[in-house]
Amino acid sequence: MLENYKTALMNMYYLKAIGSSIRASLISSLIVFVIALVCAYYISKLDEKIQDSIITILNMRSNYIGVPLAFKYILLLGNTGMFILLFKYFGLNELSNFNIYLWIGLIITYVCFQIPLAIITLYSPFLSINKEVRQAAMLLGANSFQFWAKIGIPVLFPSIVGTLSILFVSAIGSYATAYALAGRSKGIVIVRIGSLVVILGVAMVSMMINEKLSKYKSTKIRVE
Fold this sequence. Notes:
There is one protein chain. This protein is globular. The protein has helices spanning 2-10, 12-43, 48-62, 67-77, 82-89, 93-96, 103-128, 131-139, 144-172, 175-182, 189-223. The chain has a single domain (2-189), classed as MetI-like fold, CATH 1.10.3720.10. It has eleven helices and no strands. Helix 1 packs across helix 2 (12-43), helix 2 crosses helix 9 (144-172) and helix 7 packs antiparallel against helix 10. By secondary structure, the protein is mostly helical.
């Protein structure tokens, strides 16, 4: 078993895939975290009915992942996507040359499907920092900076760490979206693992078929 880890960590084919996947996952996770942190804060300040409506929509949106998500962005930002054609029509050449099949396209897709998940994860901790807690801190002489440094951030810290972990794992383990956009042309570790699993599955099926055929032939020879 240790030989497998040694092979993965010594082979440049796998090392490049691991490094590329970690880089793309980290970039998308940090972008999503900043956006979600701001959105969750302002959502927690809205009226309760509006909050419930927004969270319901985000819950439905967070389940929209995989191949359908990739197909949607291909329709919008692919070589003949709606936005690309609009950019060409209006003479926006820099934007019309955008290629969703490069790393930037994969990161944008990761960002878009992770934002609802991150907002939902950070929304509840912001609710725990209610007006009464802030008012109590102000009455004790704390200013806004002291409140966030000594109360707000410590309360949010476990959720911050958990959200970043979930986002990173979600991005690095997203197989269907990555495969639909990049296929095997990009060095993505989850796609390469998937290709090895497929090869192993085909090999096992072939072995089972050969075994069945050999048993059938031996039985037929005995009968004759």
